[in-house]
Amino acid sequence: MTALPQSVEDWREYALTRGPRMAAEAFLLRLGGLSAGEQRAALCGLPTVPELIRRFEAAWPRREAALGGVPFLTKDLYFRAGEATFAGSTFLPEEIGPARATSTLPAAFEADAGAVEAGRTQLNEFAFGLTGENPHFGDCPHPARADLLAGGSSSGSAFAVARGLVPFALATDTAGSIRVPCGYCGVWGLRLTPDVAPVGDLFPLAPGYDAPGWIARSAKDLRQVSAAVLGEPPPAGAGLWAGDLGLGVPPEVLAAQRETALRAGAQEDPAASELLRMACAAAAEAYPVLGGHAAARVHAAWLERRRAAYDPVVWERLDAGRRRSAEELRAAEGVRARVADAFRTVFRRHHFVALPATFGPAVSKAAADAAHRRRLLALNAPASLAGLPALAAPARLPGGLTAGVQFVFPDLANFGWDAVLARLG
What mean pLDDT, rounded, does the chain reach? Predict the structure, then answer.
């Protein structure tokens, strides 16, 4: 029996030589490798078999395109015209109705690059979490260790890519939701910037902080997928390995993350690292104030009326967001300004900044507590507060699991993701 395709190139060749129907069958065979529980926790919005075949057939005229015939999945925050968007909830379509238009990013991958949207992926409810937990559809497991969590909120996208269902999947990152699951699941990702998509182009978590992006199974796949929609990237020179911002990442984890960063072209600069450490010290406290306040405004029309339908953890975060005082918001904005200023200063000397994205490998549900969330925010909120793009990469640990490394760039015009991936790939 011929091996099923895995990489972008595998899928392109398979679709081109076997045709759209067999490509659709290959996806279904891959899907059959997941248990019912895994499918429910990681996937949603799967088309019927006839509709799936129709989508592959519709892509056939673009079979020579950069991603011709390559299937992908979309995080269930992106809209598809005429279809419901649940965003990990049980009730959102009852409030907003079906989508009027398809979101820009999946439309570009289909129309311009020839890829085939084969379904959607699950997430923390309304993307408000970093664990992949969802009480309605099940917690998304780590792709190799069912006793651990995949990380979130783009848990389903990372899980599906890591398990080989598709070579890439669309995701979003508001405060680490691409960077964390990539680190835990051993896959690669790009976070763009909050201003890259039109307002209303996807269902928001926290307007002003939500950044679209995607996850791929390897550095090579991420290069191909990214080039298909971003075009020729700028070069990237040496960057800064900023260490762990004084946050106490375990030495054996930090050593693996540092090795990855240095291999990617980062250098050590104690003065620049100390500047970032001081500026980012309060980021984990400031982000929930600003991000939670922005998120609460999205849900204001139905937050009380739908209280019983929410994940209680999510409802509490939204409730806290709407209760922030003017003084809290001003103080958090001050932190945001200091973080952004520090990054601007560092970028005068370094092309990118490399930081840990996780404190170690994936954790169990019992360990995914409030302290775990705060630690992840301390690492990931700085780039989010500054609105910066980032590349997410895994660092392999001695036990076989992975931790996350993030490469933060000054803006999309200087987003030298390809150079870093070439060094790492």
Answer: 97
